[in-house]
Structure formats: structure tokens, C-alpha cells
Amino acid sequence: MRQVRVGTRRSELAVTQTEWVMNQMEEKLPDSWELIKETIVTRGDQILNVTLSKVGGKGLFVKEIEQALLDGRIDLAVHSMKDMPGEMSAGLMMGAVSIREDPRDCLISRTGATLDQLPEQAVVGTSSLRRQAQVLAYRPDLQVKPVRGNLNTRWQKLMDGQFDALVLASAGIARMGWQDRVDQYLSEDVMLPAVGQGALAVQCRSDDHEILKILKSVHHEQTAAAIQAERSFLHAFEGGCHLPIAGYATVTDDQIHLRGLVAHPDGKRIIKGELSGSNGEEVGRLLAEELTKQGAGDLLKEVRKGIES
């Protein structure tokens, strides 16, 4: 019996996502194979009293899991795509990209209020500079304060009155079965999603051809094409999920349409654009070049300086 060890973070959401991938794989597994889940604590799970940007969010939730893959302690790993840094460790590859859940962000409030209905100076919780920038761009009268921890912890902080509302990924809420708690799904015009949001990345060693063959049962080509454009855009800025960068692509026939955004966390400066083409990698790179000409590179330098100071 070959035991195939699947690595994941320990949070309830991460485990739920991993079990979904394992269920998809089960149907294609040889009878002599057995899937075993392995939970791994990442640095991002350990440091909960500091915002992601301050502890260097690039790869914060994947480094320990990638190391376990490289060491042979696990055979594949399931990540939220939006946690994946622009560059991957040598010797590893994305063996599959799952079909995308709802990519939008959503608002959950204590009173049932929408983003428009929140009172002035209401406190909105998020540790994402991308979300912070877009909330403040839309409602500069609100306060945005960092909130860390898993979904259950954040929900409890909301109920305890520490926040008036939270902005969260709709996909995670759906996977937890919490749709009835959502007060508003935020349109892409108000809140452009994070690169890869709503999709799962299944990572494995580049030379593990048996695993790669099995992972075809999980892979969704249309989602992968959209993600390629988004990650190319992110990679051009050497960005990670800790920076105020957003990117969302859709695929129609053979055309990829990408919307991208780079912002200052105060929401006062937002540079955005969109581009279409047939090659995802090229579309992402060209859109990044277009936004760089508008000052996105200088804006991100300023943001990084502020984070480091």
C-alpha cells in the first residue's frame, strides 16, 4: 500500500479545502494507494498579534509546507491560491489548479448593515492592505483595523464588539457553509479580488510523475488560464498577498481579460487598468508594465518603505 501524504495548514478552512481535493482524487487513485492528511503549522499561523504586511506576508502560509514537500515528508500540498507567492521554490510545481469558487470578497456585519449602510467611523476588520485600500477608497469615513486568526476567531471578535464588520473571501465562507452570515457580496468594481482568490493550488515535486498524473482529476484548465494571467501580473511587481495588489481575470473562448490594481493602503491613490489577450502570462506582464508607467512601481516602493519602517 502506497501512502500519499497530503499537507495542509491546521485551520478548519484549510482542512475542509484539503478534504475536498482528497475526495476529488480518491476516484482516480490506484487501489494500492491511500491518502493521508498531514497538518502543518506555518509561521503565519503562529504570529497572530502582528499584521501580515509587518511580518513579511510573502509565502507566510506556505514556506513550512513547501519545505515538508522538498524533504519528502509529504507528497503534495493544498494551499489557498491567494497565499501563494509569485515565485515557487525550485523543485516544486503547481500540479493542479482547482475550479474557482466565487472570487469576490464579502462583508459580514454585526447589525446586518452593508458597506453603504455602516455608520461613519464604523470599524471594519481586515489584515489585507488590498482590502483596506479599497474600503477606504469607497468609504474614507470608516476606520479599518487589523484582525488576525482563523474564521472562527474573527467571527468571535466581531460578535464581541471589537469590530462593526469584517471583509472576508466569499470562497472561504462558502467552504465553511457560512453563506447565511453574509450581509453583502462586494462587486469587483468596489473590491477587486486578490490574485488567485477562490481557487486552490495543489503543489507537488516537479519530478513526481505519478502524483502529477493523478492530479489531472483535480485540475481545471479555464481557472488555470485565468490564474496564470493574475500571477504573471503579481510576479511583475515581485508581490505577495501582503501588498495592496489586486488582479482578477476571466476567460471567454480563447480570450483572457485581466483587471489589475495597485493601491496605497490609505485608499487615496489607486492605479488600475485592464487588458485582454490570448496568452495569460503576456497579458499579466503587459498590464503590469502599463500600470508601472502610471506610477505603480513607485507607489509600491513607498508602501514597502512604510511597511519596513
Automatic annotation (TrEMBL):
Any GO CC annotation of this UniProt entry: cytoplasm
EC number(s) recorded for this UniProt protein: 2.5.1.61
One of the GO biological process terms: protoporphyrinogen IX biosynthetic process
InterPro entries linked to this entry: HemC, Porphobilin_deaminase_N, Porphobilinogen_deaminase_C, Porphobilinogen_deaminase_C_sf
Catalytic activity: 4 porphobilinogen + H2O = hydroxymethylbilane + 4 NH4(+)
Pathway recorded for this protein: Porphyrin-containing compound metabolism; protoporphyrin-IX biosynthesis; coproporphyrinogen-III from 5-aminolevulinate: step 2/4
Porphobilinogen deaminase N-terminal domain: residues covered: 4-212
Keyword Transferase annotated: yes
Alphabetized Pfam families for the sequence: Porphobil_deam (PF01379), Porphobil_deamC (PF03900)
Limits of the Porphobilinogen deaminase C-terminal domain: 226-292
Modified sites of kind S-(dipyrrolylmethanemethyl)cysteine: C241
GO molecular function per UniProt: hydroxymethylbilane synthase activity
Cofactor field: dipyrromethane
CDD domains referenced in this protein's UniProt entry, alphabetically: PBP2_EcHMBS_like (cd13646)
Protein family: Belongs to the HMBS family.
Note: The porphobilinogen subunits are added to the dipyrromethane group.
Function: Tetrapolymerization of the monopyrrole PBG into the hydroxymethylbilane pre-uroporphyrinogen in several discrete steps.
Subunit structure: Monomer.
Protein name in UniProt: Porphobilinogen deaminase
Annotated source species: Kroppenstedtia pulmonis
Encoding gene, per UniProt annotation: hemC
